[in-house]
Design brief:
Amino acid/polyamine transporter I, Rossmann fold, 10 strands, transmembrane helix, SLC12A_fam
């Protein structure tokens, strides 16, 4: 189909529909001529701004079936597209009910003996059969209806006043009228016809050309008609009569029968247009697997015109239910909320696409992002003014659908704005990130030298508990240059990322080829990071091979000289962290290692896995006399920390520190001990070998070395 038959005609017929014939007089009567012109202008402004956004997105890439859902999902991703697409389908389906109920009302106004409910059910069945039979036949029938509407409008203009009245500028008295925003909610569905043409996108010969032209033309013609009609109505009929009589146009037209033909044609064509569009949205949702697996039959098409008959039958069934129980004034505000939500998201889509200036976004029809944002803000503002509670409810429904789709992990085969948005945010943040930052803003950024994640899972587990979703950590693996070609590195990173995702761990992943693990780790620490966002802490396991001790010690020394905090996890018997109930911190004061150990213990304590743990800060003093002065100082220090930790003074009385350590922490789940500075210790290999020997009988130990140029004691104050 082309522009005139595929977009302009169905859009205009939907705009000039049931609201114009059966509720426009009521609108003028309630808010008067001035209020009506304001409502028409505001409503059309929102749809016009949305039309600009639609034109921009529709001319950027090929548009297939699904209309607005297709445009949103291909830009904002499957989850947001589905969260908006499902309410959009319901809005389209309810639109069918709106128009059929309007048709039934007009018929019963002429023939009071008829039952409006049964008229609606029979009409739904007849229009449904037409939609199932032929799309082309339905479109051709709309040309005749367009002629009938034109005839009815001419008849109305040539008519005469019903009574001796003056132009009602402000409508009936406030005590007898409905509020402005309530009237707006009833009227707004009248200008939502722009979706009709967009929903037929899959049946258009050239959607990128037809959608903008047909939509703009329909909006413009509709606006002119809706600005002229209030003047005619206000000049010929008293406000109270306009409110009381839905079919007042019939009485003031030159030939009342033309109005009846117009309202019947408009309501039926609008219903048919929505009955064509709604199933195609449902079909697109099913094609993209947004809906559950049982809905796959909605994807089936029949005949040369590829009519989605299963989706159409479902829509007919839904319409029958809403027609049976529905009410025009009840359905119209619901549709307003659904359509405004869709319009807002469409505007957001176009605005973000334009603002980000992605290389892939090159629309033929260019719109400044300001107009799209203005359209989105207008939609949101009007929604809250109409009904704040209903607006919140609408966003909650969309949010719930989004969360449901997010948990299903739908994988779309198309790109989205998410990556571009995040890239822009990251760029903005990185360029403004301070070089060092204040100690108060310090957070760990951990580089985990895990090797094979499955074999050294406790390292990843500890890093995940320390960061607790509030800081970054990277799982890194060094692979052999001789065994792993460069082209396989990305595959390994993908496998590790999938492994972490299955374990519900959110972390960055880096795989590096190197001659050996120690050289690779040194290279990684030297080069890994982005701008000021680089790891400040290296977490790794202990080395158990004496032949590697020299290279391992040199690596630790290099980390320290690179100003990276070092956390070494020593777990000789692979005990892990057992029950995660007791953490011992062997403390020597608020110096660098001491402060960092308290911070790490506090972060662990606030994680879900360790929240039931007791943190014991233990300090050894040589004798009883020394404990009195130490206790006074420690009371003040721990009170200022605000960690909730208590301390324990242990009197040596000649006992060796390591003997006390083994006695006190034998049953603990995790022990934190400070590590000496490699530069000052001399022969670090000898020191480290002795340290391992002295602690070999203990449970899992974490050696902590503070190297970063941060005053960690200020983090605790």
């Amino acid at each position: 189909m082309g522009t005139f038959g595929g977009v302009f005609t169905p859009s205009l017929l939907t705009i000039l529909g049931v609201i114009m014939y059966l509720r426009f007089g009521w609108v003028v009567g309630n808010v008067g001529l001035i209020g009506t012109l304001l409502i028409v202008t505001l409503s059309t402004s929102i749809t016009f701004l949305t039309s600009l956004s639609i034109a921009a997105v529709a001319t950027n890439a090929p548009v297939k079936g699904g209309g607005a859902y297709f445009l949103i999902s291909r830009s904002l991703g499957a989850e947001i597209g589905g969260a908006v697409g499902i309410p959009l389908y319901l809005a389209q389906a309810f639109s069918v009910s709106l128009y059929i109920i309007g048709f039934s009302e007009s018929l019963t106004a002429i023939f009071p003996a008829l039952d409006a409910r049964w008229i609606g059910l029979v009409t739904t069945g007849a229009l449904g059969a037409l939609a199932l039979f032929s799309t082309q036949a339905t479109i051709k029938a709309q040309y005749v209806i367009l002629g009938l509407i034109a005839l009815s409008l001419v008849s109305l203009l040539l008519g005469s006043p019903l009574e001796d009245s003056h132009i009602e500028l402000w409508g009936v008295p406030a005590s007898q009228s409905v509020g402005f925003w309530q009237v707006f909610a009833i009227f707004f569905p009248a200008v939502t016809g722009i979706m009709t043409g967009v929903n037929m996108s899959g049946d258009l010969k050239d959607p990128a050309r037809s959608i903008p032209r047909g939509t703009f033309l329909a909006v413009g013609v509709g606006y002119v008609i809706y600005m002229v009609l209030p003047i005619v109505l206000a000049a010929r009929v008293d406000a109270s009569t306009l409110v009381a009589e839905p079919l007042i146009m019939e009485r003031i037209a030159l030939w009342g029968g033309a109005i009846l033909l117009g309202v019947w044609g408009a309501t039926l064509s609008s219903a048919t247009g929505s009955l064509l569009g709604a199933p195609r949205v449902l079909q697109a949702l099913a094609n993209d697997k947004i809906l559950p697996g049982w809905s796959r039959f909605f994807t089936r098409v029949s005949g040369k015109e590829k009519i989605p008959r299963a989706a159409t039958v479902f829509t007919i069934g839904l319409t029958l239910v809403t027609v049976y129980f529905g009410n025009l004034n009840l359905i119209a505000p619901i549709l307003t909320m659904f359509f405004l939500t869709t319009y807002a998201v469409l505007n957001v889509t176009a605005g973000i696409e334009t603002f980000l200036k992605s290389p892939s976004f090159r629309p033929k029809f260019k719109v400044h992002w300001f107009f799209s944002v203005l359209g989105a803000l207008g939609c949101a503002a009007v929604m809250f003014l109409i009904n704040a509670l209903a607006t919140v409810a609408a966003f909650l429904v969309i949010g719930m659908i989004f969360i449901w789709l997010k948990r299903r992990k739908i994988k779309g085969t198309w790109g989205g704005l998410g990556r571009g948005m995040l890239s822009s945010i990251i760029r903005y943040a990185l360029l403004r990130l301070e070089k060092e930052g204040d100690a108060k803003s310090w957070r760990p950024n951990i580089l985990v030298l895990s090797g094979s994640p499955a074999k050294r899972w406790r390292l990843i587990e500890l890093a995940n508990d320390i960061t607790n979703g509030n800081a970054l950590f990277t799982v890194s693996t060094i692979v052999s240059e001789s065994n792993v070609p460069q082209e396989k590195v990305k595959d390994y990173e993908g496998q590790i990322a999938d492994f972490l995702s299955n374990k519900n761990v959110q972390a960055l992943v880096r795989v590096l080829r190197a001659p050996d693990p120690f050289t690779g780790s040194t290279q990684l620490v030297n080069a890994y990071g982005l701008g000021q966002l680089v790891p400040n802490t290296v977490l790794l396991g202990d080395t158990r091979d004496a032949a590697h001790l020299n290279a391992y010690s040199e690596m630790i020394r290099h980390f320290y000289k690179s100003r990276k905090n070092v956390i070494i996890v020593k777990d000789d018997n692979n005990k892990g962290f057992k029950k995660k109930r007791v953490i011992d911190v062997w403390w020597g004061g608020m110096k660098r290692n001491g402060s960092l150990m308290i911070i790490l213990a506090y972060l662990l304590k606030n994680s879900r896995e360790w929240q039931q743990a007791t943190v014991n800060v233990k300090m050894v003093v040589p004798n009883t006399e020394a404990s009195a002065g130490a206790r006074k100082n420690l009371d003040a220090i721990f009170s200022g920390m605000r960690t909730g930790f208590s301390y324990q003074l242990l009197v040596a009385e000649g006992r060796d520190f390591w003997e006390i350590l083994r006695e006190e922490s034998a049953e603990s789940d995790l022990v934190l001990i400070g590590l000496a500075v490699p530069e000052l210790e001399g022969d670090f290999e000898v020191y480290y070998t002795a340290l391992k020997e002295k602690t070999k009988a203990l449970p899992t130990i974490v050696f902590v070395l503070a190297a970063q140029e941060v005053e960690f004691d200020k983090v605790l104050h």
